[in-house]
Fold this protein.
Amino acid sequence: MVRFVTSLLLASLGASALAATSCSTSSQCPKDKPCCSQYGECGTGAYCLGGCDPQSSFTIDSCAPMPVCKDKKYTWDNLDNAAKQDKYLGNASAADWTYSGDPKTKDGNLIMTMPTKSVGTLFANNHYIWYGKISGKIKSSRGKGVVTAFILLSDVKDEIDYEFVGADLAAVQTNYYWQGVLDWHNSGNATVDGGNTFDDWHTYEIDWQPDQVRWVVDGDVKRTLKKSETWNATANRYQFPQTPARLQMSLWPAGQASNAKGTIDWAGGEIDWDSEDIKDLGYYSATIGEIKVQCYNPPDGTSKNGDKSYVYTDKIALNNSIAITDNSTVLGSLGATGLNMNLGADDNKKNSSPSINSDSVPTNQGGSGGMSGNGSGATTTHSGSNAQSSGNGFTQGGDKANGASVYGERILSSSLFAVTVAVVVLVTL
Ligand SMILES: *[C@@H]1O[C@H](CO)[C@@H](O)[C@H](O)[C@H]1NC(C)=O
Ligand SMILES: *[C@@H]1O[C@H](CO)[C@@H](O)[C@H](O)[C@H]1NC(C)=O
Ligand SMILES: *[C@@H]1O[C@H](CO)[C@@H](O)[C@H](O)[C@H]1NC(C)=O
Ligand SMILES: *[C@@H]1O[C@H](CO)[C@@H](O)[C@H](O)[C@H]1NC(C)=O
Ligand SMILES: *[C@@H]1O[C@H](CO)[C@@H](O)[C@H](O)[C@H]1NC(C)=O
Ligand SMILES: *[C@@H]1O[C@H](CO)[C@@H](O)[C@H](O)[C@H]1NC(C)=O
């Protein structure tokens, strides 16, 4: 699961954020705020875009259609192709990425930073991938409690991860989830040969096919997961990542003191906010070089009436619950939803600025994708009813009284590996 860190935004949104309506697969959003964000909160606008969970939203078409996969190479001379979350309305041709945090670019690379006591940086690609080969040249961050993530995360929390734990620069953890169900057997640990993950460039690839996932580091296949190995005979289904997913990259403070013990242990201990990197630069950092996405053809038998967007056709969210359509992915305003895509479009043209509030732009929580770890230590903090959750997120810096942190930690505990910062929290899974 993805965990996200709550960012400072949470604090700044104050009371309104705290009053957010939460959502889960067993408690869908109400009609007026129909979209369940990645963090498990209801809203409109950006809540209906990347991360919007169709299983927990008011109806299956409350979330906006998802931009289809795009073959592309990304380099980082500037951040012109990246938008802050409150500036993105679903046009992936205009902005390839949305992000939170304080990223920088240098020598054609992206520097994801995590200043003292912050929740770090999260970059999410706006083009969904429904099978493909994704690779990234990465130099991870370092230090106990500091986690760098490179993951694929779907809106129903299918997830395929690389997670770099800063306390172990000789290896990268691999993990996957199906619909956020926590299972520590899913995690693996791949040794990285030839220099460590912090000082040296390595290429981390996820080769995601309908019948298998391969984690490939510097051209060596480190791990293969066959779909056939994921069969659940009781439920009669493959618990394999099989829904359109976005690439998320993050740097986040898994070892922050307020996180669950299992999470902190997994991350190698509490973060040292007085480390060499903090003293020298004022932040921890992970460096991202070229990212390549090569899309695979959709599986035979997929319902296809266009080539612009993926939509869910069934809440069960398995491999045959996806159709490809020409439906637009772009919202008219931050008040619009999948149920009324053009709402507010005319006002926008007239230039009145859209009202941005906590119900239209989810709190960015930095974070990362799943964690795994042996979340066992953390498990004791779970109390939730949803066994099935996936959660996401952990909050950082959040106000514990509001429950968000509690959920976040629960989630965290559930998985620890991952990646990106994500988002959010308040999840309920
Ligand atoms: C999306 O952005 C592209 C590039 O900026 C632009 O050409 C196109 O008209 C936009 N599409 C919509 C539906 O706004
Ligand atoms: C992962 O592998 C590295 C290198 O072999 C080892 O030092 C480390 O303890 C392993 N980590 C886990 C969580 O198994
Ligand atoms: C298999 O499915 C059953 C029924 O939904 C569920 O209770 C069980 O936890 C699943 N097994 C695994 C390993 O996820
Ligand atoms: C979905 O998975 C099943 C079982 O592996 C397979 O038989 C079927 O062809 C798949 N359908 C699609 C559209 O991928
Ligand atoms: C796609 O667009 C058509 C025509 O506007 C609409 O009837 C249909 O409900 C849309 N489908 C989805 C899944 O949004
Ligand atoms: C995770 O926890 C389980 C149960 O406590 C333990 O058996 C297993 O060895 C642990 N796995 C790792 C990778 O530490």
Summary: The pocket of 2-acetamido-2-deoxy-beta-D-glucopyranose (ligand 3) is lined by residues 181, 183, 232, 234-235, 239 (CB under 6 Å). Residues 8-18 form the longest helix (11 residues). The radius of gyration is 19 Å.
